[in-house]
Design brief:
With about 350 residues, the protein is an alpha/beta fold. The chain is about 40% helix and about 10% strand. Helix 2 (about 35-45) crosses helix 6, helix 5 (about 190-205) runs antiparallel to helix 6 and helix 6 runs parallel beside helix 10. The N and C termini lie far apart (about 80 Å). Mean pLDDT is about 80; it is low at about 15-25 and about 130-175.
Length: about 350
């Protein structure tokens, strides 16, 4: 009897082991994200279901980034790709077009729920070049404290989210990307809208984890709402003090929190300002009585030191693309709090 029981036990163990060989574990969704702030929001919505891959890592800037073989391999394996759009990650436009139907590409800038602001041009914000020609416009620096966005630039409410995936959607490119400021994540309300876009795309691609995505997205939106109130209070003591930024990346933050910049050193960080532009900005620092001029960690800080020499202005650092912050779901909150803290510290001479 004992031999029979032992033999049966061995048979059952063998059968269990054989069955285990044929159990295929569920594969996590292959998700690729272009830049750190967007990656943080995607990681927050995905939670424990998987980890999205990031393309622009470390202190690299999307303005000057060059694709690596590992990036191309990640895109080839991707089921879902999130990016802002060609106005931010120009290096991704052709590789994503080449993917064809192998991956769903979600271009965040053209989602109907996301508010886009037009580029500022002229005066302290310099002229942008469209099609090789400079066009001077009036200074669009807004001093309104109501934090409202221009409703004229809202997208058609009848356009569905999935109609705005890369290369599709009615009127997607009615306006060229060069007409809009693509640093849209610097408004927490836009970030909340982006979370909704991410949630929808993930649920469609991976319905088995829909409940987790929905719960994570709802929690993130609550945190973003609290973050807005927190930053608003942080900046209250220095609101109205003039400052100059390195490149014109902060319009969304400025509008949301009533902190208009007095100008920028350069429009695009990949194009360093010439002597004439530096002379203009130095004059603007003096004219506006700028308390601070802010550098960015990815670019040469000595330029700012040269500009403020002999003026009362102090030097600070702002990091709109999170170059100095470790990637992950908390990055967005660290990024936004860091901008608010550094603005307040410099403008109030606290640090």
């Amino acid at each position: 009897m004992r031999k029979y029981i032992a033999r049966m036990s061995r048979t059952m163990l063998a059968a269990t082991a054989l069955a285990a060989v044929f159990v295929v574990p569920a594969q996590a969704l292959e998700v690729v994200v272009s830049i750190k702030p967007l990656h943080s929001l995607v990681a927050g919505v995905m939670g424990d279901t998987g980890t999205p891959k990031l393309i622009v890592k470390g202190a690299s800037s999307p303005h000057t980034y060059t694709m690596r073989p590992s990036d191309a391999a990640a895109l080839e394996a991707a089921e879902l790709v999130f990016w802002i759009g060609p106005g931010m990650e120009a290096f991704l436009e052709k590789p994503l077009a080449a993917l064809g139907g192998d991956a769903t590409s979600v271009e965040i800038a053209w989602q109907k729920s996301v508010t886009l602001l037009p580029l500022r041009e002229g005066g302290p914000f310099e002229a942008h070049s469209h099609d090789g020609h400079d066009h001077e416009h009036a200074d669009h620096n807004d001093d309104d404290d109501d934090h409202a966005h221009d409703e004229d630039h809202d997208h058609d409410e009848d356009q569905a989210t999935d109609d705005h995936e890369h290369g599709t959607g009615p009127g997607q490119h009615t306006h060229g990307p060069e007409e809009f400021d693509m640093h849209l994540w610097l408004d927490p309300e836009n970030a909340a809208a982006v979370v909704g876009v991410i949630e929808t795309a993930l649920v469609q691609a991976d319905p088995a984890n829909a409940a987790a995505y929905k719960a994570n997205a709802e929690a993130l939106r609550g945190r973003l709402e609290a973050l807005t109130g927190e930053i608003d209070g942080e900046l209250e003591p220095v609101r109205g003090k003039p400052f100059i930024v390195f490149h014109d990346a902060y319009q969304y933050f400025e509008n949301r929190f009533g902190m208009p910049a007095a100008g920028s050193i350069t429009v695009s960080p990949e194009v360093m300002p010439g002597a004439e532009r530096l002379t203009q900005i130095r004059a603007r620092i003096v004219e506006a009585g700028a308390a601070c001029v802010f550098a960015e960690p990815q670019f040469e800080p000595r330029l700012v030191e040269t500009l403020i020499e002999g003026t009362p202005a102090r030097a600070g650092v702002l990091d709109p693309e999170a170059g100095a912050i470790e990637e992950g779901p908390e990055l967005y909150f660290v990024l936004m709090r860091g901008i608010a803290h550094n603005l307040r510290a410099c403008l109030s001479d606290e640090g």
